[in-house]
Amino acid sequence: MRVEVELPEVEGNNGDEATVSFWYVEEDEEVEEGEDLVEMITEKTTFNVTAPVSGRLLEILAQEGDVVKIGDIMAILETEEEEEEEEDDDDDDDGEEEEEEEEEEEEEED
Q: Residue 87's domain spans which residues?
């Protein structure tokens, strides 16, 4: 599953934008929920944006030096939930196929 990392509102900051100072992680790196991803600078403060979920940093959209507005998407994370869901879907398909095969065998026996 893909999760968007947006610039949040920050207490004590009256502005609606911030500048990307630097990224702590690079694309394709694994991150943990709550881990610092990027340092942001405003006229009044410096703060970090953290990972909303654990996963892999799929794509950085806001580069160092870019000015980003509150709510803008700065990066995309990919969580492992997508892989687990796909595996579950595969398991479900196998179960349906097995049931169909059993039904066909029963019909042949009759």
A: 80-110
Q: What is the CB neighbour count within 10 angstroms for residue 75?
A: 22
| Residue 61 sits in the same domain as residue 95 | no
C-alpha span between 43 and 47 (Å, rounded): 11
Q: What is the tally of structural domains in the chain?
A: 2
Instruction: Give the whole-angstrom CA distance, residue 105 versus residue 63.
Output: 60
What pTM does this model have?
0.69
How would residue 108 be classed by pLDDT, with cut points 50, 70 and 90? low
Question: 104 and 84: one domain?
Answer: yes
What is the b/e burial string over 40-61, where b = at least 16 CB atoms within 10 angstroms of the residue's CB?
bebeeeebebbbbbbbebeebe
